[in-house]
Amino acid sequence: MLFKLMRNATFGAALAFVSATAPAFAAATDYKFQVVAVQAAGPQKTDVTVRLVHAADSKPVADAIFFETHADMGPEGMPTMPGDVTVGAPQSGGNYRFQVATAMAGTWALTLSAKVQGETQTVKGTVTFKAVK
Using alpha carbons only, what angle is made at residue 81 by residues 75 and 84, rounded to the nearest 5 degrees? Predict the structure, then answer.
């Protein structure tokens, strides 16, 4: 009986130590995308600069890899009006530029999927922006 008690106490102490020293990982939902700038980039094209931040401390996240992007006019009630998206080179401060083929003026949704170093889950989010003609 004393052996069981000592074994359980040792196991509990070891578990507490491991829990206290294990690195904490954030979930994909702990990140958010923010629109930084929107500007016309030529006929029917809009440059959208987006910042990826860690939501808990608002620190920008650099070196994310974007592998899926989509733009449409869903906010205007026209989700079937897509716009091609070109991913630009990463900028400083966790900023990323996307060029969207905006066929018409109005409110557009830019849906992004990215991999963040150290995260196993994909970070996904949608931002809206106003395209001008």
Answer: 105
> Tens of pLDDT along the chain (133 residues)?
544 444 454 444 444 443 343 344 456 789 999 999 999 999 999 999 999 999 999 999 999 999 999 999 999 999 999 999 999 988 998 999 999 999 999 999 999 999 999 889 999 999 999 998 7
Question: Is 67 inside any structural domain?
Answer: yes
**Where do we find the tokens 């809206």?**
128
CATH code, domain with 119: 2.60.40.1940
31 domain-assigned:
yes
Report the alpha-carbon distance of residue 86 to residue 70 in Å, rounded: 10
In a domain, 78, yes or no: yes
CA–CA separation, 54 vs 31, rounded Å?
5
